[in-house]
Write a structure and sequence with these properties.
Length: 188
């Protein structure tokens, strides 16, 4: 074996790291969303008007996700898998928004801790299978783009994904706010 063969093998072994870090960030966002559900049920946000609570939940999830993305950034830099420090910083910041919007949307759909926690394993398996962690199934592009790790993995190689991520985040936030408005209207 030559040193080139060893390097090629290590690239093959380390290539899923970015995808796994992306999935871990989403998983942490999901955990933060469950804490948000718990806090709402406990009355932690009772002084916040109902129409603004969705934004408070988004902020709570975002804070947790930002902390984890810092660790992901450090991991990418240490492992030598970063696409450049400034691009990676921009990527993890926008990815934090993307994951927070996604997790908030799931929170709006699955409104109890029990329901949300039962969906987490399905989401993780779907992200591992559909997102370009091990393989990039271009024929499943539509399904891939419904899951945040696709944007994070592809942002390292294609700058368009740095634009797609905030669009995805805004779409998730808009759907979350719309769902919240429907739920609050039904309560009245």
């Amino acid at each position: 074996l030559s040193s080139k063969d060893i390097t090629d093998g290590s690239d093959y072994l380390t290539s899923p790291i970015r995808g796994f870090l992306g999935i871990i960030v989403v998983l942490c966002g999901m955990a933060a969303a469950m804490f948000s559900i718990h806090d709402e049920k406990a009355g932690t946000f009772s002084h916040v008007p109902e129409r603004l609570r969705v934004y408070v939940s988004f902020g709570c999830i975002l804070i947790a996700v930002l902390n984890v993305t810092v660790i992901a950034l450090i991991s990418l830099i240490i492992s030598g898998l970063s696409a450049g420090i400034f691009r990676e910083i921009l990527s993890v910041i926008v990815y934090a928004l993307c994951c927070s919007g996604f997790c908030l949307l799931l929170k709006q759909v699955f409104r109890s801790i029990r329901a949300y926690s039962s969906v987490i394993p399905l989401c993780i398996v779907a992200m591992i299978a559909l997102c370009p962690v091990f393989f990039d199934f271009r024929s499943l592009s539509i399904l891939q783009h419904l899951l945040p790790p696709t944007y994070f993995v592809n942002a390292a190689y294609d700058a368009k994904y740095l634009i797609y991520m905030p669009i995805f985040a805004l779409a998730c936030l808009a759907l979350s706010v719309g769902a919240d408005m429907l739920i609050n209207r039904r309560k009245r």
